[in-house]
Amino acid sequence: MDDAMLKQLQEVCEAYPIEPVWLVVPSTRDGRLIMKTLAENGISLLNVKVVTMDQLADAAVGGDTASKRMDRNGIHRRLYQALKASKQELNYFTNITISPNFIDQMMTTLLDIKRAGLNASKMSEETFVHPDKARDLAKLERVYETIKHSLEAFDEADILKKAVSSVERTFLPSAVVFFPHDAYHKLERELLLTVKDYIPVYTAAPESSADAPMPNQPLSFLEKEVPSLERGLKQKQANLSMHEAFSLDEEVRAMLETMRQNVDAFDEVVIHYTSTKDYLPLLHESVTSMGLPATFAEGIPLHHTKHGRAFFALVQWLQNDMKLPDLRDYMQEGLFSWPDVAVQEAEVRLLELENRGVQVLNEYALQQLYETAEYSGRATDLALFTRFKQVLDCVPVKYRYDELDLGTAANHLKRMLQVIQPDFAGEEAVVHEALQTHLEAVEICLDENYAWMDILQLIDHECRKLYAGGSLPKPGRLHITPYRNGLYINRSHHWVLGMDQTRYPGRQSEDPLLLDGERASLNSELDLSTYHTSRALWQLASIFLNGNNRSFYVSYASMDLGKNRPQVKAHLYQALEDALAKNITIHKPYRPLDVKFDQVDWWHDKAHLGAGHRFAREAASFYTMHHQLIEAATQRFSSKWTPWDGVLKDPAALVDPKRESVPFSASKLETLASCPFAYYLSYVLKLDPEEDRSEEYRWLTPLERGSVLHELYEDIVRLGLINMEENLSQVKLDELFIEKMSSLEERIPPASLTARDIERRELYASSQLFLNVEKQKPAHQAISTEYRFGFVDHPTAIPTENGESIQIRGKIDRVNQYEDQSIEIVDYKTGRAQKFKDSSYFEGGRRLQPALYAAAYEQNEKQKVRQTGYDYPTTKGLGASVRFSYGEKEQVKLSEVLERLSRTAATGRFYLTDDPEDCKFCRFQDVCRRTHYDQELIEQKQDVDQPEIYRGFQEVRKYD
Ligand code: SF4
């Protein structure tokens, strides 16, 4: 506050020595800062009280509305539920997802309309881009008003309107002093003007800059002559120092370094930032790591703290059906942590469960963990079981779409947070307190019922808006604040960070529910997105001009490293630079910066601003990974055959299939034949491309679906449904299906009812199809299902051409015996039938399974196999069947293929496939990048130094 403003306030207070005077302030926090400044300047506050505009409105109507102000979260939740149920009644907004963010935006727009004195249902349709939009807004307003009415609650606009029409002098003070803020609406202005009819209204106007006129102000203080920013700074005798940094990181470091050199007391400093998202975490981290004492005006967003992240991870985990891989990630990050549980051991136990097909934490998983703990007798295993049980005991529903009341859900979440993070201290305790307080406020909502997944989404939305540890400036501490809240902070050193055009004034996007054009046509009082710029200018210019003898340090970063693009300085930064150039302001400039040269930033600069990816080799040496990457790219684009192309120096011990002690599966051998490089990535380097765990609302993974279908087929055969009379087999199938589905839902909770129903329909149709197809087949007997070979009890070695052998293992889905005693081997495929290639037997080595399974069965059972092949008993495969005869000729060919394959692999040369068709469904495409190479280069490379080995591999392709 400058001297002129203090003088005005002193005069008002002296004019009313004992009568009540109210200061109408933008926020309670500003009010406390103003009172503090007045007291420090010896102004009597005997009868002075601060109120916000809302409190003034409550008082003006006699104070009976304050307790009925609507709870925004409460209305928000009900609107969310109501609109989700009635979305089909909307026409213009029909394609919009009803999300908590949409409801927030909608409530803000409706309030904007009301505060401008309008009524959505009476707005002219011609004003809108489409008449349906006007109708939809009117419908949304009706739903909103109905909900509010049912709760007998009022919003701000209702109370302001009521106050304007029925001000009661009795409840007003002797005078009010109005502290302007950046955005007042029509109803607020009308209230002040109405109050002015009864009592004096003064304006405490900070001097504003002519460069930044404040928009939409209710009173006439702007008519006063205001100085330009340049003149203002001169009059105020301000010190100004400016700095351009390369990155945000450097900007913050430079600021703290300069502060250390130039400031004697921390509590003389306030740091203003323009972007909460970019600067708050950085500032928080920097002051914490440097051990600087600081207060944060808004506190820290909960998701920037460990305890907060643990809570959001918990909510997300519950939304995703408590998947074990996510649980492992959260434990590794320390978000779910227990003193008696070792993370590495827990990870092993969870991986064991996943390998057994358990994908979520449920009763079945607990039972498995308990058995492991009982068997091993280890305390850590028992602790893991106990902790997970505690977590599961707190889950209040069986399925994500089960309904329950909000209060119970909040109570369970509260307990669960305690369970996953039992130990916390210091700042984390403040975060815990903030979360607990919010959840306790929700706990009273026992009459609101929602689906569990909706509750999780709503609570996540509400808690993401929470900040912890917000504070007023305190003695001995730096104060850190968004510039919007910094106007009334009376300190002498002001740092302003983030003065680039993107962050200041930044751009405000139009409200999609009510566009600027529509707002302008409806009413001149409605806020436009363009006002954002002039407000931002007014707010910051006011900080520069409000106070005498202040020092300002202003900075921006010229590069946004996150987006890899340069940034332009803000207009106000330029204006200040001009003022500085005219040598207007500097009394005691700060000493020049002594910031150390930062090699990482320098190399970043080279990498991003220089010649794209063409790093200087020295630059790359800074980053080991980059260096290797360049080396790999150079080698792979050469015509030489290099280790980066899949060649091993000492291969035999590692990769000769005949020497492998672990038996091969058919698919492993088929991969080797399809593309040796894919085999190398998968089985030698053991790369496992990361699964996309993005939120996808489906029930079963392809693997789970395949395994359920196999179980169903096996049961149909085992229970003899194929040979039963039509009606009976149908009844039995239905019984079997219902039983299977209910145990499946226990094991793997469906993502949603819709996902479950779609999947169930498909599974049922495939089971039905399987039964129908089987009934039509010639009479046969399934003498074995799920026939296992190659495991400890049935070691199986298939001979190769030169008399050696390869160990193999597998599971034959079904072995049939026909009336003529001939044997048939069948494998079920759950995908589409490969019509075009099924005429080929070995398909150039890519199809080995039918012959391998036949050979394995013959070897173990000493029975001749007549034919072997696949069935496709699903809705995708349409019940197709493919059979290949099997005899001595095929046996010989199989041994030849196996010989050629193992010989090539033993050389340690893993060629890229010669047919790009093999790449279509390859999961290693991103790693391999075959599509980036010319076919000519690939052929040249593969053939160049030892052509005979490559030709050996190509011989496999001759087996059709
Ligand atoms: S993308 Fe093609 S060449 Fe590369 S590993 Fe996969 S199948 Fe082989």
From TrEMBL:
Keywords for this protein: ATP-binding, DNA damage, DNA repair, DNA-binding, Exonuclease, Helicase, Hydrolase, Nuclease, Nucleotide-binding
Spans through the membrane: none
GO-annotated biological processes: DNA repair
Source domain of life: Bacteria
Molecular functions per Gene Ontology: ATP binding; DNA binding; exonuclease activity; helicase activity
SUPFAM superfamilies on file: P-loop containing nucleoside triphosphate hydrolases, Restriction endonuclease-like
Domain PD-(D/E)XK endonuclease-like: 664-929
Residues of the ATP-dependent helicase/deoxyribonuclease subunit B N-terminal domain: 5-169
Name this polypeptide is given: ATP-dependent helicase/DNAse subunit B
